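User: Could you walk me through two proteins back to back? I'd like the raw sequence and the C-alpha cells for each, with a short line separating them so I can tell where one ends and the next begins.

Assistant: Of course. Protein one, sequence then structure:
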Amino acid sequence: MAYVRTVKTASGARAVQIVHSSHKGSRDIEHISSAHDDVELELLRTVARQRLVAGQGELDLGLDAPPEAGGPLPITASRMGHLWDALSLAYEVLGFDAAADGDEVFRQLVLARIIEPTSKLDSLRVLEETGIAPVSYRTLKRRLHAYAGEAWRERLAALCAHHVGLGPATLLLYDVATLYFETDAGDGFRESGFSKERRLEPQITVGLLTDATGFPLMVNAFEGNTAETTTMLPTITAFLAAHRLTDVVIVADAGMISEKNMKDIEAAGLSFILGMKIPEIPYIVAEWRKAHPDTEIADGQVFTQPWPAGPTDKRKDQVRYYQYKHDRARRTLKGIDEQVRKAEQAVAGKTAIKRNRFVKLTDATKTVNRDLDLEAKARALAGIKGYVTNIEDPTPEQVIGAYHQPFQIEKSFRMAKSDLAARPIFHRTRDSIEAHLTIVFAALAVSRWIEDTTGWSIKKFVKTIRRYRTLHIQAGDYVITAADPLPDNIQHVLEAIKARAATH
C-alpha cells in the first residue's frame, strides 16, 4: 500500500513524499521534490498520482481524471520564444513597429521570412511552427497592397537612415542585382535583359543602397531591361531628396559607372569614390616602368595622378590612383594564359568558339590573335586597379579603403538572395512584387542588426536559437511554463541583444 503526504522540510519549504507500507508494517519513504508555490505543489501531486496508480486498472466514472497513469503530462503550447522575442526586439528597436502602426501582419511576414523564407501562404505554417498565432490568409492578401506603396517603404527607409546616422561624410554603397521569373513572356515590368545569372527568362532589376557597413537604406525595382548604369543616379537623388541631404560620398564599382554616369554625379554636386576601367596603360605607370626597366613594381605600390579640372570643365578636381597587387596580377596572368589556351583549342576545332579576345575571325577563317600589342597590353595591366575620386584632400588609404567596402553590399545582396530568398517566384503583378521587396528590405535590416549585435550570421543565429523552445504543460488545474536550458554562449548572445536594445 502507498499513500501521499506533504511535509515541511528543515528550511520550511513544502515537499511531497510517497510512503510505501509493507505487510510487515515497515515503511519506505520516497521524496519527490520540494515545492515553493501552489503550482509546483500541484505538479508534484500529479506526478505522485501517476506513480501511485502506475500499472493499476481504473474505473471510468466519466469524471475529469488526472493524467494517464505513468503517462507524460500534456504540452498545451510550444513556442520558439527566444528566437521570436529576439527578432521582435530588433524589429522594434529599428522603429518598424511604430512605422507600420503596429501592423501585426507586416511583422509576421518580415520575421517569418527571416526564420524560413517561403511563399506568403506557407509563411502561415512557419508562424504556427514558431508558436505564433498567424493571421488568416485572406487578411494577409488584403494587407499586401499597402506594403507596395512608396509611402510605406519611405517610412522604413527613413528609420534605416536614422539608425545609421547620415551626414555629409556618409559613404553610400550602390549595387544592382537581377531577379528572374519562371515565365517566358514579359509584361512591361518583368522583361528579359542583361542577367547577372546568365538566364534568358524575364527579370526585374533591383537597386540597393546601403551604408558602409552594408546596412540597407533604400531598395528600388526597375524594369528587367533597364541598363544597370542608369539605375544609380535616380536611386541616389531620390534618397538625398527624401532625407534633405546635399552631399554624401558615393562608392560604386567600375561596372556601375559610365562616362555619362560620372558627369551626372558631378552635375548633381555629389562626391564619389569609383572604380575605374583601364583600357590603356596609365601614363604614370608607363613612365615609372621606363624609369625602372629592371625593377618589378612592389606589392601594394600606389601611383597617384592628379586630374585637375580645366577652365571649361564643370566638375571638381579629381585624383586617380592606380594600385598594383601581386596576387591580383597572378590571377590575371593565369586568366590570360587560360584564354590563349582556349583560343588555340577553338582555332584547332577542338572546342566551340566563344567570346574570347584572343580569337581572330577574318571572313570564315579563324586564327589565334597573336597581336603582340594586345597580349602585351593585357599582361602589362595585370595587377593594376584604378580608382578615381573628387573628394577634397584625399589619401590613397582613404580612397582605396573606402572602395573595398562594396563587399558589404555584396554580402547584403547574398543575404537577400539566399538567406531571405528575395527572388519573388510566387508573385506576378507589379504591386505584389513591390510588396515582396518591401518585406525583404525590412527583413534584411533586422538581419543586419542581429548580425552586427551578435557577431553571428543570421543563418547561424536562426538555426541555433530556434531549437530552444518555451513550453506550456498542463498539470491538473494549473499550467506550468517550462523551457529548454540555454548554453552559456546562447545566453550571452541573447543578453547582448537585450543590452543593445536597452541603450537605444
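----
Protein two, same layout:
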Amino acid sequence: MEPEIIQLIDEHGHEVDFELVASFDLDDTRYAVVVPVDGDGEDAYILRVEQDENGNDIFVGIEDEDEFNDAVEAYNELMEEYEEYYDDDFDEEK
C-alpha cells in the first residue's frame, strides 16, 4: 500500500511533507498521527483534524496538555490492539 503523504506548513512558513501513519477518533474529535517524510522516523506528531469552511481537512497542533495526553493514550491503546491482532493472526499461520 502506498503511504499517504500530506503537506503541512511549519512554524516558519515552509511546506513540509508528512506521512499519515494513523488516524483515529476520540470522543467526537478526529486525530492524525504524522511523521516527517525527510525525518529519521523518531519524530511523530499527533494533530487534531478539523474542517475549514469548504469542508477540507486542516491539521491543528494540540495546545491543551490534557487533550494531548488523552490523544497519546488513545493512540497507544490503538497500537496495542493492532499489535495483538496481528500477533494472533501471525500465530495462527504457523
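The chain has one domain: 2-86.

Let me know if you want the two compared in more detail.
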